Amino acid sequence: MESLVLDSPAAIAEEATLAALLRCCVREVAGPRGHVWPASPYLLLRVAGTLIRVRTGGGAALRFEGAPERLEQGAWRPLTSAELVRLAETELTYGTDLDRANPEFAGQVAASRDAIELIVKARTEAEPPADPWLASEQALVFGHPFHPSPKARGGAGWLRYAPEAHAAFPLRLLAVREDALAQEGDTSALDHLGQAPPGYTLLPAHPWQLDLLRPALDDRLIDLGDSAWPVAPTSSVRTVYDPVGGICLKFSLDVRITNCVRKNAWYELSGAVALNSRLAPVFADLASRFPGTRWLPEPGYRSAALGGRLLEGLGVIVRSGPWSVVSPGVTPVLAGALATSARAADPHAWWAAYVSAVAPPVLDAYLRHGVVLEAHLQNVLVGLDAAGMPVEAVFRDLEGTKLIAGRHDLSELPAKVGEALTYDAERGWARVVYCLMVNHLTEIAATLAPGEPEQRALWAVARQVLAGYAERAGSPLPLSDLLAGAPLPAKANLGVRWSRSADRHAGYVPIGNPFA
């Protein structure tokens, strides 16, 4: 292996890539096979016959300390990401069928590592935004900690649109002739971006998506050039913030980011508007019960009715901006950024406030209203007061929000729209628990107090908060099981990438519950 300068972008990218893949191997490969053993201060695991050790902390978050090593001829030697890829490939191919081999896998892991290196370099030369919320959106340098290729992105020229590189760019403004306009709901917030000719309606487009689509322009679709001011990408890449209008715009992007090609399917465009109207009374009720609860409505979408490819490819969903919903004096911060930076003079008080703001409304939405909120680290903004204490929780992104089948009347919707909006109760609860407990609270707790005794103390505080909510809610069975220590469902991102399945088909592996 080529020698690396300590803390060089290449070394940082290699360390992050190796750690993410190793976490996946612990959770999805070695763990289910019984090939993981605690040996303090190390965690030992066996992958494809090779014994690996690494110092670890942070509970289920698996925060590694120092370089992982492999046992070779009686001596411990440094492990590289390329070596771990080969071991994982062997284990996964042998553990399934030979025809399930994935020739793309190694390239995806390498592409993610190379992307992290480019991002780290770009951040040394770019100026972060002054807006603290936007800065938190652009802070996720390494991506999902339990994904084998968290920063692999399709397409060329992606760095100029990367939130992690503090990108900012103008939108491309199109004009759609009124007889070719497709829209539902309230899209008036788009009209301040520019002026369309008479008989046309303004349609903003992401410049990267426009390059990918290369739409045929005729008198039904006119290119008006760039917007007068730049927008900034948020953590999802395809959603941008317009600082002049104070709104967010969620574009289609025909690029694979982590597990999915990020395109607004026609039924997702219609579904966002249908769901928005149904969620308004739900969040009004949640806010009455939990006063710090907020959400970012998505009141409408606009596109061009010029065939399915352009309808979906040019579709843009309007979303409220976070500064419009938080209370005066409260600063919204992306939970994913707090998962890498949370600090507090009194960790127990801060953590109690955090869990109280985030968890009860998510559980109540499911139990009382039959609504599945995907409260993972990228879908929740936490409102901090002037002292840095969590006081509000802002939930966003209706694409992942679902309704429990049988508890909502969707009969007036097209069948495909209704199907995309629903989960059965079991799948919905698994999604709630994974996003809230495994993806979110586990990561925050690991950053706030990485030591094992401190972790136990934090989870005792969290259990007290949730037990109080459970008592008020009548101790519903799924919540009682959770508090009793039932295993938690952890999403199998390595399995999804290996099988090349759609993200909606992702399975779960059981992991230990910190309440046990």
Structure description:
This protein has 3 domains: 9-126, TATA-Binding Protein; 168-325, no CATH class; 327-484, Transferase(Phosphotransferase), domain 1 (Orthogonal Bundle), CATH 1.10.510.40. Helices cover 38% and strands 23% of the residues. It has helices spanning 9-30, 81-95, 105-125, 132-137, 207-213, 266-289, 308-313, 335-341, 347-369, 415-420, 425-448, 452-472, 477-484, 493-499, and strands at 36-39, 42-47, 50-57, 63-72, 75-78, 169-177, 181-185, 200-205, 221-233, 239-242, 247-251, 256-257, 260-261, 293-295, 300-304, 316-320, 331-334, 371-372, 380-384, 390-395, 402-404, 422-423, 488-491, 508-511. The strands form 6 sheets. It has an 8-stranded antiparallel β-sheet. It has a 5-stranded antiparallel β-sheet with strand order 1-2-3-4-5. A hairpin with a 5-residue loop joins strand 19 and strand 20 (390-395). Residues 1-5 have low confidence and may be disordered.
Summarize the structure.
It is built from 14 helices and 24 strands. The chain is α+β, with helices and mostly antiparallel strands and 516 residues long.
Number of helices: 14
Describe the main β-sheet briefly.
8 strands, antiparallel
Q: Tell me the domain tally.
A: 3
Radius of gyration, taken over Cα atoms and rounded to an integer in Å: 23 Å
Distance between the termini: 43 Å
Number of strands: 24
Q: Which structural class is indicated by helix and strand composition? A: alpha+beta
